[in-house]
Write a sequence for this structure.
């Protein structure tokens, strides 16, 4: 039986592209397991449930090998453990097709190469992010996306909160969500007041 697995790294990301690919492959929704959690940890509820459900002869289908994990060792360990249980892994969109139900040396090489590429991309991504933070800090700007509210708007919003206006009223006045208002106010406070 084919079982699907889809994962994104954060709750803010969308699983739709992966779910569509698994659906087009013919896997029904009730046999697709999902997680919204980083691949750097193997402690993922959906993946744990999938592994409990899968039996020898089943195949886990994912869009890409890095959905199983971005850490090289963990990814290779997962593939090895599943193969030991007679459970295969196939990917739909990797540049080198993965099918661990094939015992050929080329299939093993493909898994190792893709796991290595995923690991390297994670390392490079961290390096690029660290460099971007350093470059931004050197200019005196805050890292990340531009803030929705400038310092004058934040001061006005805080004053309105202090006078008893509700967060919903203030957020509506500035054209932002309540969550954005609170996040911007929190980020604007000195560290000792947070």
């Amino acid at each position: 039986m084919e079982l699907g697995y889809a994962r994104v790294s954060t709750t803010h990301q969308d699983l739709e592209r992966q779910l569509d690919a698994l659906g087009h492959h013919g896997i029904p929704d009730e046999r697709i397991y999902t997680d919204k959690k980083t691949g750097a940890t193997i402690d993922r509820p959906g993946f744990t449930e999938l592994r409990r459900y899968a039996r020898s002869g089943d195949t886990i289908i994912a869009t890409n090998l890095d959905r199983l994990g971005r850490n090289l060792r963990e990814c290779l360990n997962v593939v090895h453990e599943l193969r030991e249980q007679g459970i295969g892994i196939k990917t739909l969109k990797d540049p080198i097709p993965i099918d661990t139900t094939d015992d050929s040396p080329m299939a093993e090489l493909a898994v190792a190469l893709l796991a290595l590429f995923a690991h390297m991309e994670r390392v490079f991504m961290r390096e690029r992010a660290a460099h971007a933070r350093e470059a931004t800090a050197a200019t005196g700007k805050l890292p990340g996306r531009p803030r929705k509210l400038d310092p004058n708007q934040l001061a006005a919003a805080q004053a309105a909160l202090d006078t008893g206006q509700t967060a919903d009223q203030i957020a509506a006045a500035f054209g932002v969500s309540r969550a954005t208002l609170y996040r911007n106010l929190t980020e604007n406070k000195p560290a000792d007041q947070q």
About this structure: The beta strands are 2-8, 32-36, 59-62, 88-91. The mean pLDDT is 83.
